[in-house]
From TrEMBL:
UniProt keyword terms in alphabetical order: Transferase
InterPro entries attached to this UniProt entry: Acyl_CoA_acyltransferase, GNAT_dom, N-acetyltransferase
A Pfam family this chain is assigned to: Acetyltransf_3
Lineage: Bacteria, Bacillati, Actinomycetota, Actinomycetes, Jiangellales
Keyword Transferase included in the entry's annotation: yes
N-acetyltransferase domain: residues covered: 11-166
Domain of life: Bacteria
PANTHER family in the cross-refs: GNAT FAMILY, PUTATIVE (AFU_ORTHOLOGUE AFUA_3G00765)-RELATED-RELATED (PTHR43792), N-ACETYLTRANSFERASE DOMAIN-CONTAINING PROTEIN (PTHR43792:SF1)
Single Gene Ontology MF annotation: acyltransferase activity, transferring groups other than amino-acyl groups
Designated name of the protein: Protein N-acetyltransferase, RimJ/RimL family
Transferase recorded as keyword: yes
Length: 170
């Protein structure tokens, strides 16, 4: 476990543990946390989403995983990848999400850059980011991570801005 933990000045990014379940079920069911997501999850869907997060992290060291604020010890969100099929192709999609009271502090960039450094140790290939065109903050973050705009396209019937980042080419 210790080797899996990424520590930054203000944050810890680490794989999910069973003890995180209640926190994430609460977050996935919370409208404010899930803003810019098609729906707030039911308790059952939130439980399944936590199981999925745990499963992905068993095989991908940079799967979507908890971000912990060191000053408070609180789990404040997540960053990392999940599998997704877009335009008939399997992708690793990078995403991040923080509780409202810690947005605007640069945490998403700090956590994601640290986990991206870990990703570069094991992964060569493309990453995809899928963002609502109205979500300016998220697009700012993804550019700061090195993603570049690819195109606009439909994802689950909604128009989304698609960004890509290729690891292993620097
Ligand atoms: C998107 C999110 C992860 C960004 O994380 P963050 O740590 O708050 O990001 P930052 O503090 O680095 O702010 C990002 C940038 O957006 C800007 N910004 C923040 N809110 C903004 C808003 N409502 N409108 C325009 N710009 C905004 C900030 O000024 C900052 O600009 P900079 O890059 O020039 O410094 C966070 O806001 C969040 O969790 N939002 C809800 C969930 C979400 O949208 N997830 C992404 C789905 S694709």
């Amino acid at each position: 476990m210790t080797g899996d933990v990424v520590t930054t000045e203000r944050l810890i990014v680490r794989p999910p543990e069973e003890a995180d379940r209640a926190r994430f079920v609460q977050l996935f069911s919370d409208h404010d946390f899930m803003v810019f997501y098609p729906e707030t999850l039911t308790e059952e869907q939130a439980q399944a989403r936590f199981d999925h997060m745990t499963d992905v992290c068993r095989t991908i060291p940079f799967g979507k995983q908890p971000v912990v604020e060191r000053a408070s010890g609180r789990v404040i969100g997540y960053t990392g990848v999940d599998h997704i099929e877009v335009e008939g192709r399997d992708w690793l999609e990078w995403g991040y999400r923080l509780v409202p009271d810690v947005r605007g502090l640069g945490y998403a960039t700090e956590a994601s850059l640290a986990l991206l450094a870990k990703a570069r140790e094991t992964y060569v290939g493309e990453l995809l980011a899928i963002i609502d065109p109205e979500n300016i903050a998220s697009q700012q973050v993804c550019r700061k991570l090195g993603f570049t705009y690819w195109k606009q396209g439909p994802v689950d019937g909604e128009v989304r801005n698609l960004y890509t980042l290729t690891l292993g080419k620097d």
